[in-house]
Amino acid sequence: MPHPRRPRRPRRSHLGARLARWPLIAVAALGTAGCALVTPLPEPTTLAQRLAIFPTDALPLERPATVSWSAHQVPFVEAETDADAAFVLGMVHAHLRLGQLETARRLSQGRVAEMAGPIPFILDLDHALRVLGFGRAAPAILAAMPPESRRWLERFTDGLNHYLMTVEDLPHDFAVLGLEREPWTPEEVLTIGRLAGTDITWLMWVRLLGQRDRPDFAAVLARELQYGRLAPSSREAVLAEAPVRPGRDRALALLTEILDGWARGSNSLALAGTRTASGKPLIASDPHLGVSQPNLWLIAGVKSPTLHVVGLMPVGLPLFALGRTPDIAWGGTNMRAASSDLVDVGGLPAAALTPETHRLGVRAWFDTTRTNRVSPYGPVLSDAPLLPFRDDETVALRWVGHTPTDEITALLNAARATTFDAFRAAFAPFGVSAQSMVYADRHGTIGLVAATQIPRRDADAADRLIQDPDDVRRWWADLATTAELPVIENPPQGFVASANNPPGPAPFPLGWFFSGPDRIDRLSERVRTKDTPWTVEELAQLQTDTYSLGAVTLRDHLVARLGARLAGRPAWDLIAAWDGRFDGDSRGALAFQAFYVPFAAAVWRDLDRPDDWGGGDGKWRVFEVVRALEDPALLAVAEGALATAAETLETHRVWGDIHRMPMATVLGNVPLLGGRYRFGTFPTGGSQETLMKAAHPETTEPHTVRYGAQARHISDLSDPDDNHFVLLGGQDGWFNSATQLDQIDLWRAGRLIRVPLRPETVAREAVVVHRLSPAHGDR
After folding, report:
1. For the chain, what percent of residues have pLDDT higher than 70?
2. What is residue 574's three-state secondary structure?
């Protein structure tokens, strides 16, 4: 019989209104931790002092091993067995980022109240995270892993635990957040991996679900789908002669901000040797994630019997998400594929929905329990607080991340590949988050692989936010894998590029909410129009490019239609003469932003569509609307926006006066005492849609960057040592460490750190070398 309708409950407020209190996590920590926040910060430590505490003797290793540390505390591990290499990498992660690891563990498991205390919305957050269930598939993933991958993961976990349970001095975070030593399990590592695999589609659902009561919702959804498909595919970007466009709610808050911070953006570009000064391929990648301290990445290297790689490791995960081996190099961008469906399970019998109870630990308070249900299609999301479902809906989440896909094995095997075919085959078990993997090798091959597992949906599936169970059962019966998805190999144009756009055509929808076209078009344009060979230094400049195609297209359209009637107004003259670059010292960029925000808002207001424009990758959609306006209406809106812009220009001088990069931990939000966890802000360039991504609220008020380019990588395949990385921040998560923030100036200047791959070069350039001895001695 049909599942009975649940008793009507109070209507939940919209997610944004409920969650616009992210700083309260830190406030809660202050209120419940007593004197914890006044625990003295560690004294400044030198690199030598920090490295002196790294364990080196009587370790549970099979054979001796070494860790060579650079001046920026970048480790390179050499081990005689893969298992020992994994163990030492686990110790490295714990040494550099133990406090961050422990908070990520609790976040991924819905245990925030254990750190923050008895604040109702924090308990709601934990409940929502438990329902999402990032660890649901972990036991099955572990059980299905190949033995060598499982051994790698287990030994990495052993390394984390050895450091955690034996080191004498724990990070400052432990005292402030009330953390205890608690051994890790491999399943917990996998759970962090699933948090990192968040489906970016969820963020769009949150926005759209809250608008379904609008009479014009069908048109709202249609517009979102239209603008989510504006970007050309990577295949089209390579083949096009030039870019062609058809004219073209803190409450992004706690839950949204958490998910958004882990959902990966990025740019990635591979150039064939025909386009490079060295004659061998170059590869450049810059991941876009939440701006946080410590950084979400570690730079590391390892050499063991089956691995020889330098690259970026996600903190807490035993894999290299991008990097370089003697043979190949790779990067990647979030494909923004639709890895999830919302499923209407309201018609299922009550017996089909299994209840589950979660015990929520609460710092300095009594534990509590929360309940929800699990359907045959996945957890019932509408049982969770915070999410904007209607009171009479029973909606489940079907997510690839709840199936036993194996990203660790995939990326380990990718790092062992020596050919493009082997690299592509490595991603057969890969699931989330879907990636467009960009590739280059020393033999000259470049390419792109679509790495994911995805349901075979009907073409019109996106027209419905919540799907019928029968459709979902059919779509998910046989997931498509990388072997059936788009691939690019050695295009004659001599480059491949990806910027969160679709990778290429597929026989079923890959997704609907791709990034705007600006970055992929800018990458492609820069490569096609450069008639001299590329160098590493020029790619580093490209990664800091602040030119906005969307802003310039809109500006030029307005100049052509209204220029003569607006000329002479100081703000307009600045905009008309602006070079299109959102440089930190640009007054023209400030003038454009000061004009654009009131202009776009007025366009939407006059069309009675105030809820549709939320900024972000929005300039193309604003341009499309502007094209349809008659000149008198457009002139009136522009004149009003210029009047507002003049006020902003009287108060501020350049873009960097209002657009700033924050250097702070979460605890920096605590009133009074949070200042010691804030390391300042600095003016920065970039904007929403520039290659140097620096996302921000669409405002004319001073603001800080929310997420963007926070790490960079470039490799020249002609030389195994010609690899370059930089982090926004530094390697070390230890407060007052010499390498906590030592890479910020490099990042701001567009400079990178050379990270060699040859062991002899590593040894020659190391400032400290640790020789690690097994507990049983040499065998």
Report:
1. 89
2. helix
Where in the chain are the domains? 201-295+330-533, 549-580+587-653
What's the token pair of residue 721? 């040592």
Q: Output the pLDDT for position 38.
A: 73
For residue 213, the one-letter residue type is: D
Amino acid at 259: L
Q: Quick check: 125 and 354 in contact, CB under 8 A?
A: no
Q: How far apart are alpha carbons 139 and 191 in whole angstroms?
A: 10
Three-state secondary structure of 185-196: CHHHHHHHHHHH
Express each pLDDT in 554-592 by its tens digit: 999 999 999 999 999 999 999 999 999 999 999 999 999
Q: Is the pLDDT at 48 greater than 60, yes or no?
A: yes
**624 pLDDT tier (thresholds 50, 70, 90):** confident
The residue whose two tokens read 């239609």 is: 561
Secondary element (H or E) of residue 754: strand 753-754
Q: Kindly provide the b/e burial profile for residues 589-616, where b requires at least 16 CB atoms within 10 angstroms of the residue's own CB.
A: bbbbbbbbbbbbbbbbeeeebeebbebb
At 195, list the tokens: 């948090």
pLDDT tens for each residue of 146-158: 999 999 999 999 9
CB crowding 370-385: b at 16 or more within 10 Å, else e: bebbbbebbbbbbbbb
| Angular region, 752: left φ>0, alpha ψ -120 to 50, beta rest | beta
First to last CA, the chain: 68
Q: At which residue do the structure tokens 């996106």 appear?
A: 462
What CATH number labels 201-295+330-533? 3.60.20
Using one digit for the tens of pLDDT, what is the confidence trace for 292-341? 899 999 999 999 999 999 999 999 999 999 999 999 999 999 999 999 99
657 annotated among ligand-binding-site residues: no
Among 64-78, 239-253, 350-364, 707-721, where is mean pLDDT lowest? 239-253
Dmax over CA atoms of the chain, in Å, equals 86
What residues contact residue 626 under an 8 Å CB cut-off, 6+ apart? 554, 557, 558, 603, 634
CA distance 429 to 224: 31
The tokens describing 502, both together, are 């679709």
Note whether 315 and 196 are within 8 A (CB).
no
**Beta pairing class for 678-683 and 659-664:** antiparallel
* Rounded Cα–Cα distance for residues 147 and 128 (Å): 34
Give the residue from 612, 619, 604, 603 showing the smallest Cα distance to 556: 619
The three-state (H, E, C) secondary structure of 26-77, written as one string: HHHHHHHCCCHHHCCCCCCECHHHHHCCCCCCCECCCCCEEEEECCCCCEEE
Q: How far apart are CA 235 and CA 242, in angstroms?
A: 13
Determine the 3-state secondary structure of 624 from DSSP.
Answer: helix
pLDDT of res. 108:
96
CB 695 within 8 A of CB 289: no
8 A C-beta contact, residue 417 and residue 215? no
Concatenate the DSSP letters of all residues of 154-217 into one string. Answer: HHHHHHHHHHHHH-SSPPHHHHHHT-------HHHHHHHHHHHT--THHHHHHHHHTTTTSTTH
Give the number of residues written for the chain.
779
Residue partners of 320: CB distance under 8 A and separation at least 6: 300, 309, 311, 312, 313, 411, 415
